[in-house]
Design goal:
Keywords: Cytoplasm, GTP-binding, Magnesium, Metal-binding, Molybdenum cofactor biosynthesis, Nucleotide-binding, Transferase. InterPro entries: MobA-like_NTP_Trfase, Molybde_CF_guanTrfase, Nucleotide-diphossugar_trans. The protein is α/β, with parallel strands linked by helices. 23% of the residues lie in helices and 25% in strands. The longest helix has 8 residues.
Amino acid sequence: MSFSTLSYNVVILAGGASKRFGEDKCDHEIDCKTFLQRISENFDEPIIVTKRIRRIKNGIQVLDNVNGGPVEAIKLALPYLSKEKVFITGCDYPFLSKRIADEICSKDAEISIVDTGELQPLIGCYSLKFLRDNIDKVKKMLDFVQLAKRIYIVGTHEIRLKGIPLKSFVNVNNWDDLTNSYKPKFTLSKYIIKC
């Protein structure tokens, strides 16, 4: 499947408390753009699940008044999803690009997820059917991995070979994450197929 024919929805989770960061990460600016703007502008119509209306130019905003975490936020996004696959991320990955989403969503799997030394469920592409069939069976995002029959683990070695900067995977939880150099572990890609 070529990237030009890829079709997937995008869900950006923007409702976290940002306690460790000390302010709302989604509104923090780097080079005059907020974290949320930096991610959302990569995509045509992202579905943004947020605890309040955000000032952004594109996307559909879905209010999350429950604040029940990522799984509950994805439940709120489900009615807006129509494509076969869904790329899911959070606003705390400000260096992420569409190129990453294209690469991850090009894999033939129920879940394609990045491994930076630990699995990153919020840099992942999920089959919409798989999400709908299993959303009520999970409490946290990594529970999806336990339920999937076909998983593609995207390793940092593959990403590096494709020329995609590993900085794309910086998950900003505190100020040090912005200032320290990011060094993910060397990981290899692999398919996991369960019977």
